[in-house]
Amino acid sequence: MVATSVPERPTSRAPIRERHGVVTAVGLDADDTLWHNEDHFHHVEEEFAALITLHTDDVDASTALAALAETERTNVTIYGYGVKSFTISMIETAIALTGGRIPSAELSALINHGKDMLRRPTDLLPHVPGIVEQLALRYRLVLITKGDPLHQNAKVAGSGLAHHFEQIEVVDEKDPATYLRVIARHGIDPQGFVMVGNSLKSDVLPVLEIGGIGIHVPYQFTWALEQAEMAQHHTDTGRFHVLEHLGQLPALLSTLE
Q1: Which run of H or of E encompasses 125?
Q2: Class in CATH terms, 38-119
Q3: How far are the Cα atoms of 40, 53, 97, 109 from residue 91, in angstroms, in the given order?
Q4: Closest CA to 254 of 19, 32, 28, 30
Q5: Could you say which of 53, 106, 138, 195 would form a disulfide bridge with 27 (CB–CB 3.0 to 4.6 Å)?
Q6: Domain ranges of the chain
Q7: What would the CATH number be for the domain defined by 2-35+123-256?
């Protein structure tokens, strides 16, 4: 786990009020919650599938993508999350599906796709700058994201949002144990902790399991390894909420107060 400190907030900003309601701190996911991410992977996956079908006679696009997902599932336990792990998985899957016949030039093309993804500027989602600034005036904000620390921290820096957060946490995994460690380190009560993100698997379910509040803001694409279903017992607790976009978050948090 890598925790990245951020500069102190400007002294001219109004002090955060002591929170006496339900919500004491708000965690925000980064990729596909604050800025675009999965659509870049989706585009490269389409390029990958087209490449495989070009060099094989019996593998269609859906089979190629399913094989890639299974390779990723294994490799995240070795390389972690992010573009670098994804690129290695594409190369490994391409070699396996073509029986090693894929030309080196095509493998180089996959590597270049990965490099292009790493160089992409941070592209914020609608509503994000104003909403994050507004939330920072009322709540303790923690950015919690998983992936390659070098790339994630570069995206955070490029977002221009870092100064709004008390802490930026780049973690290896998002599970109940990780969330408990993070909020304990910052003296946050699980029952007063709200986590907002696009992934049920990583941003919502683990937080509900530790007694917090999970707010799901779906993104247009969901990575195969992040797909999950919400159990009925979670929806009945009143601690699970769904928003169409981040612009609706302040009003929801006010109702939770």
Answers
A1: none
A2: mainly alpha
A3: 17, 15, 10, 10
A4: 19
A5: 195
A6: 2-35+123-256, 38-119
A7: 3.40.50.1000
pTM of the model: 0.89
CB atoms within 10 A of CB 115: 10
Helices (H), the chain: 38-55, 61-79, 83-97, 104-119, 128-136, 149-159, 176-185, 205-209, 232-235, 249-256
Whether 4 and 159 have beta carbons less than 8 Å apart is answered as: no
Q: Given pLDDT bands bounded at 50, 70 and 90, which one contains residue 247?
A: very high
236 versus 58: the higher-pLDDT residue is 58
The arrangement of strands across the sheet holding 213-216 comes to 2-4, 167-171, 140-146, 25-28, 193-197, 213-216, 240-242
Residue with tokens 């490269």: 44
2 - beta bridge partners? 170
Residues 38, 32 contacting (CB under 8 angstroms): yes
- Strand pairing report for 2-4 and 167-171: antiparallel
Q: What is the mean pLDDT of the chain?
A: 91
Question: How do residues 171-212 score in pLDDT, each as one tens digit?
Answer: 999 999 999 999 999 999 999 999 999 999 999 999 999 999
